[in-house]
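As noted in the main text, all predictions were made from sequence alone. Below is one such record, for SWIM-type domain-containing protein.
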Amino acid sequence: MTVVAQEYRYLRSSELTGGLLGLQTSGGTALRRPVDNPVFFKGFLTEPAAAAACLHSVAKVAASRYFQPTQVRLRDPVVTCNGDRLRFESFASCCGVYARLDVLSAGLDGEVLDRGTTNVDVNEPLRRMLARVGSGDPLRLAVGPDEVTVTTMDGVAVEKKVELPQRWLRGFAELQVITAGFEPRVELPVAEAARFLRSLSSSSRSRGASWAVPAGRSLRLAARPAPGAVCLAGPQRLEALLPLLRHAKSLRVYGPAVDARSLPCASAWELALPGMAFVLVLSPEVNRGFSGEGAVLDFLAGDDVGQDAELVGALLEFEPRVEPGDLAERSGLSRERVRAALVQLGVSGRVGYDLAEASYFHRELPYDAESVEQFNPRLRNARALVEAGAVTGEGDVLSVKGYQVRFQGSGASCTCAWWLDYRGTRGKCKHVLAAEIVRGSGR
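Prediction:
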């Protein structure tokens, strides 16, 4: 597996001292420029116990591997300050679970010093301290090496080199496309949410997909999908929600529309807490990471996408809600081209999707994505097929290197083994992509 080495330089270790939670930052991007150790926020969290528990869960997901567990190197969560909120994000090492904590304006009492994105150090001693924070304990948060944090630290430099698989970054890109197609399916009061989540046997390490089906005011597990159901593959992957239930108000579950013939699909589980929201997104199966879903491929094959992404990217300013309609008006592009540009920006981690707000948000991950094709080999191979003249035929049936691609309505099918195995559930095969590129270019 290809990896990208990133060196994270923290001025000192993150620490919780006397009610002051000092989260040290590595290099990142602030509102107007790259910064070695950016400073974003300084102030109090209005719900200290809930915030500490949520931060602990974000870090726990980053340290977990739900498929083929191994001893893995810990990864440091990503934090973005969008002005009116702080977002903490992490992926499991297997890339099949995504966690995000949004501390909203009601959960913050302090000063926003800048907007931007960086990685934060949440080390093992800090996780143990967060687990002991009570509701009556003050919790003052300093995101970045400000002067208050310095007075409580010894100043010893901490440098960590972390090998980041490309699939981690690809997971961010796929996630914002997949979740943009979700709708709220059910909302449970916290008592019913707790009953359902605790009924999921932690001893059952099932890798197959079950379905959470509405049953009165609650949910029940079923072996088959039904209208209104949400896929739940590997119920044990929801364990990060359990410590948060005593602070939560409700649970909202999101997913795509399904029927009795639906195949396993991703789902999102969001706890509403005072001044905060915590969301887990699960891949369709325990052994499937988001990085291989291929959802971005629909938007990356166009010839103008790269130029459109440069234009749209220049208009982003770490907004908490990125509105495609507003970007279309400011850029002069159509909504469809703006959405494709946002997907392209997501490939380098510059765009995420917020289910509660039903909108995109701007962030900047500390990666150098050399090209879209580097992270999407199917697209790279499709372009190679086109350049080699391997696409022949016309109309709704094309031949691509001996395989038949047939277009029907808004979809397409192929006779290759990939299509027969997945039937579009993990994105388009290289043959369909090549045929679409030829049809779109008029070759």
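The CA atoms of residues 44 and 109 lie 5 Å apart. Residues 376-443 form one domain. These features were considered when defining construct boundaries for the mutagenesis experiments described in Section 2.9.
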